[in-house]
Structure formats: structure tokens, C-alpha cells
């Protein structure tokens, strides 16, 4: 065994009692990721004119539905682990034992975010762009929980930084000798996600990406990394199609969706996004004046709830010529960002 190999934490560290409760380390890292992401999104939305704390009203919908989606996606792509003769069906809900799929959380969280954004008046794509780098940070934090749970490891390796996994682990391949090292996929994904954060922020600053285009790049980046990691992951119970695990198919779908979303939104909204609020909405539900772009808060093509832009600044204020110049939009040409 290499002196640089990564030892798995003692199983005793996976949980600890607090009075009558049992606290699971995995759950704590998931919770920490959610809190950090929420703080980052709040900061990013506030800087763009959103009301401070508005993200809480969205998160109250997005997080619960995201957790439900994450768990059920995992369960239904690992049916053999939960549905067999004599199985304890309550294990389907044992989220603290690990098994929460990111792609399921995206599906459930997207539904929750849609509901929350409709209630608050925040544009869904504005929220998604603010969320994109924060999601990668949250995912990186959550992967530390996988490390404590002795899961998310890959094929055997002779690399010096291989991960030590006990031979009694349910996913330890049959026939391999005790002491075999494995690719630390949790660490690879942490690194991939943090590099992605830096790249997204760099691209966002350079090109001022809005209207869901930054979120589209997040889907492509995460899908590319995840498809490679899943290809070398040891997960014998994962269901798939044509011999390809479900998570690889989901990664391909994420990449395709990201590309389509970027192209479509680039054509529909080539200009800047001058407010994170939908037309006619503003902080605390107050209507925004649309005098700056000569409208009454509606969009003749898409209706009053359209994600089309307006000629106002963050929070409902009118943009000045200096502000428009700083955003890359010529003065007098910001009456409507996109179609």
C-alpha cells in the first residue's frame, strides 16, 4: 500500500449521538453545501438588484423538492438495493445512509425553483445563473460526505493516491485482494467542481452571460466530468440501458440540454439582462415602472409573465447611460433585451 494512499475514515466517524438523536456526518455535509450555496446565490442575486433574502423564499421550495428528487432518482436507478424478497421498504427513505443523485436533485430542484420564482417574481433564468457556480460549490462540499460514507470510488488503481476501501464494503469487487486501492472519485469530482467554479466565474465576468446561458455552461461542464467519472465508477447495482449506467445517460442528457439551452437563449436574448425581476414585478412584489422602455409591464409577444428584458436597472430603477455603457449596451439601445 502506497504511503500516499488515502485512508478511509473510521466508520465510527460516520455518525454520533446528540441526546436521543443520531447525527450523520453525510447529512451534515449535504446541509453545509445547501447553506453555502444559499448564501452565495443570495449574494449574487442581491448584487444584481434582487431583494436581500429573496433566495430564502425560493429555497423553501427548491431544497425539499430537490432532496426528494435526488433520493427517488437514486432509488429507481438502484432498484435491486431496495426491492427484493424480505427487503425493508423503509430503507427507501433512509437518506442519511447515502444515495442521493445529483441529477434527481436538479429535476426536483428545478420544479421547486420554478414555483419559488413565480411567487417572488424573480426570473427563473436569473436564479439559475446565480445558482450555477454555487451548485458546484455545494456539490464539492457534499462529496466529502461520500468520503466519510466509504462510497463513490472507482476502479482499482496503482496510483499512489489510491483510496483505501475495506474488503467488507458491499461494493468491494469480489476476487480482489484486501488492500487494493481504488480511484478516489469523490476527490476527482471535488477538484472538477472547484475548477468549474473558477471557469464559470471567469467566463461570466468576461462575457456577462445571463438569461440562463451560464447555467447552460454549468450543465455542460458537470455533464462532461460526471460522464467520465461514472465510466470508471464501481457501482454494480446501478441500473442502465444498453449496458450503460443510468448516470452516464443522464450526463449525456445534461450536456445536450446545456448546448441547446445556450444556443436557444443566445438567439432569443442577445442583449443584457437589466433586471432579475420579471416585467411588472419588483422587490416585495412591488410593480416596476416600465416607462424606460415604453411598455406597461407586459410583453406583446410573450405576455405579462415573460422573461423578456426591460429598460430598467436592478430593483426597478432606470438605467443611466453610464450604466448601460458599463454593461456593454449602447445608450438608447436597451429598451428591450432579447425578444
Automatic annotation (TrEMBL):
Membrane topology, as annotated: Multi-pass membrane protein
Key words of the record: Cell membrane, Membrane, Transferase, Transmembrane, Transmembrane helix
Pfam families attached to this UniProt entry: LGT
InterPro entries membership: Lgt
Annotated Low complexity bias: 297-309
Residues spanning the membrane: 23-42, 54-73, 93-117, 124-142, 185-203, 215-234, 246-264
Pathway: Protein modification; lipoprotein biosynthesis (diacylglyceryl transfer)
Compartment list: Cell membrane
Signal peptide: none
Enzyme Commission no: 2.5.1.145
Top-level taxon of origin: Bacteria
PROSITE patterns: LGT
Renumbered residue ranges of the record's region Disordered: 280-339
Record carries keyword Nucleus: no
NCBIfam families the UniProt entry points to: lgt
Job description of the protein: Catalyzes the transfer of the diacylglyceryl group from phosphatidylglycerol to the sulfhydryl group of the N-terminal cysteine of a prolipoprotein, the first step in the formation of mature lipoproteins.
Xref: PANTHER family: PHOSPHATIDYLGLYCEROL--PROLIPOPROTEIN DIACYLGLYCERYL TRANSFERASE, PROLIPOPROTEIN DIACYLGLYCERYL TRANSFERASE
Protein name: Phosphatidylglycerol--prolipoprotein diacylglyceryl transferase
Encoding gene (name): lgt
